[in-house]
Amino acid sequence: MKALVYTQPNEMQVLDRPYPSLDTDEVVLKIESVGICGSDMHAFHGHDPRRKPGLVLGHEFAGTVAESSSPLFSQGQRVTGNPLITCGHCEYCLQGRNNLCANRTMVGMTRPGAFAEFMSIPASSLIAIPEGLSLDAAALTEPAATAVHAINLSMRALERPIQECRILILGGGAIGMLAALLLRCYGVDDLSVAEVNPLRRQAIGKHVACKTINSVEEKVAENSYEFVMDCVGAAVTRNTAMAAIKPGGVIMHVGLQDWSSEIDMRKLTLAEITLLGTYTYSTVDLQATVNLLARNAFGNLAWVEKRSLEDGAKAFDDLHYGKSASAKVLLKPFT
Known about the structure:
Helices cover 27% and strands 26% of the residues.
């Protein structure tokens, strides 16, 4: 089969790879649509030591079951799934927080991913797609679930209903875009997105219809927002989030561009700021997100760009150089 392979930093190539083996209680999927994630870009740049050259990346997938050794799914079923492969018996799995599984592995990291014609995965990781939901929309389940999980955690910490809050999202990539669309669906009116890429600012203004901020030229107002989502996770955005948050507010930290940085611990303490971290989603979040996508909670998704998997290397280059207006590029395999 053909696959898009991470061959060395800043290089992707279409190569031949063996057809996946069908192990016990697993399925082989025919990949129909797969998204390029920020973490795939991180690996592409050579910044993720867990993802080594020679690996097939890709974990935002939707497809049909080609073969199954599990009674849970049969040939031809349309599915998406959880790329985190969890053990089911550690304390976190038993609590229903399997995103924190102590024994987790991952598609596109510890085993070949979905930038290929076919991929194997445990049947327990799969979620059936409702009849009315397209496979392209279903491929957005993984990044959309990250936004769902982060917003759900944040709402538990906010002093007032989220609809009453003035909200700032830092970063207009896929997570920021999907979070903004979901907040709109939830009835949030006072929403701003800070994004440095002018093409993405234009797309956000068109499809989310909220205020956009060019944070390179325009300073974000200090002490002005009850809720800030940092979907970048760079040192500069962490500092911006801390400056922008009002006393008593909530910062949700999602992005991980920089591994560490200083933050204003004095303000965090004296202003009683709640700083939350989030990691991916639980399987329950994924199922809820499939249902939200089926109800068009994220809008018509016209901002999503689709390309052939054969064009995948160029798609990575375009994202690297900021040439794509879309916050999400979906790759469509050859067959």
